[in-house]
Amino acid sequence: MFKHLVDGIFWDIALWVFTIGVLWRILSIFLVGNKKDLSVARTTGMTGAIAANISRFFPRSEMQSRTRLHVIAGYMFHLGLFALLFFAAPHILFVESQTGLSWPAMPYWAFIVTAQLAFVGLLLLWIHRVMDPVTRLISSADDHVGSILTFIVMLTGCMALLEGFEGLRVLHRFTVELLMVYFPFSRLMHAFMFIPSRAFTGAWFGRRGVKA
Amino acid sequence: MSDKKQSRIRRHRKVAYSLLSLLVLTLVLPLIPYAVAEKDETAGKVFNPGTELWRDVRQRDRDVIGTTQMKSVDAGVLINEYGETWRHFRMQQLVPYGAALMGIVLSIILLFYLLRGPLRLQEEPSGKKIERFTVFERTVHWFTVAIFWLLALTGLILLYGRFVLIPILGADGFGITASACKEAHNLFGPTFLVALVLLFLTFVKDNIYARGDMLWLLKGGGMLGGGHVSAGRFNAGEKIWFWIAIIGGLVLSVTGLILVFSILGQSREIMGLSHVLHGIVALVVISVSFGHIYLGTAGVEGTLGSMTTGYVDEAWAKSHHDRWYAEVKAAEDGSDKIVDEPGLATEGKS
Ligand code: HEM
User: Fold this and answer.
1) Model confidence, pTM
2) Residues of chain A where predicted confidence (pLDDT) is lower than 70
3) Å from A24 to nearest chain B CA?
4) Residue B349 forms part of a structural domain
5) CATH code of the domain covering residue B297
6) Which among A2, A68, A125, A131 is the top mutation candidate for probing chain B, defined by the most B β-carbons within 10 Å of its own β-carbon?
């Protein structure tokens, strides 16, 4: 019964909420529009947008020692999760079963290593968030729910690795559905918004000849 | 004596010797075939083809490796007798003794708590706080704790689930749980090594043996007698826990990796031994961790805050880590306080 719901109606709902929610959030941000910029433009803003998008990948030199843990754990988690999500064989097979699309998967050992990197990164990031008084103060329930839900999805995925029990696959899929429903209403939206928001800040300052 | 009499005696002697020789020959000769027959080990044995087949399959008392096209360690061995020894150890010794060990440690802690209660501060909390652990130190600690307990819980379920969970979940339900725990345990195992390295690098400098540690130990850390015993940043008990966690953790990681990466060519005997060591060390480290957790939470008033907020009350520092407190104060004051004799923080110049 539960299996049919998870593979059926729950999945449909999650997919709709995710797709419409994400589109609605992105559109609502873009449709707000910009205030008219009355300053004399030094550049088109494009250079600033591109520069900010690139420079944000590297920590500022003054902050390097303070943010070392964040940067390393951040890359471990995000790259690990990205590889895991898009290049793990079971995920590709799932996408193929739904859409017919397919692409080469990474080998099993790489799948496991990326999962481990992602787990280490996520745990370090979340524990650090709670331990540092500043990040603790500026974190809202949303940040914690997002981190914990992502952890649970990864954990159920890792528990289903044997691919031998339907129950474990269904549990993993169910937690994915929960995350998909939560996603558009949370800061997890940064997955879609980090490039445009960097570009916006970079362009805004770039037009004034200021390095963002 | 006449010649006739002498020749008669000689004749009788000959007859006697002849009869004696005949008797000896009669007794010995039939034994010769037996003696000869004993030299041939297979002589006289009746073969039972079935017995022989099973003896070969189980290779109980001989080392016969069959031939096969499979290319892996022990591929030619049909049934490894050593597996039976290992299974016996796991079921008859590891499981009951491990449960007893954890049970005894928990009972002692409970009894101690009921009889003695938590260790209180020597003086009222002052309200003044000093930093005990940095953000990084606390992050590393709780990161290790998270992975340690993920591994400990999944490992304990794999070891004791058969007894505790099958009655609740049923055999099928436990099958799913066991599979989930095994996969999680295997995946998280190598990450514990990362945590261990971080834990080691972060805390090792204050966990080296120092003067006063022996005294602390001899006084049972103040637990047995009354009152508090002088200590530096970490007392001898904490140092022992640190080294148990590090060395135990290393043994667990190495044996765990041997078990997970079965493709590296190690034999079943090595895997069996690794499992034995893995199980024993895991149960010991888990049992000792109960003591650490008790002392870090309910056992010693005001301790948990040091690992959660990073700060402790000055009264706590003076009570439990007086030499460290003096060092911190000396650094704050900018004056050099020589903290030499255990329990004595003396002002002085270097
Ligand atoms: C829920 C479980 C745990 C709790 C509540 C806990 C709590 C604490 C607390 C409160 C302290 C600070 C003590 C002080 O200020 O002197 C501490 C220190 C420490 N803990 Fe834990 N702990 C736990 C599990 C672990 C585990 C599993 C490990 C290692 C595998 C560990 C390793 C350490 C180390 C290395 C220190 C620093 C003291 C030293 O180096 O000796 N802890 N813990």
Assistant:
1) 0.84
2) none
3) 37
4) no
5) 1.20.950.20
6) A131
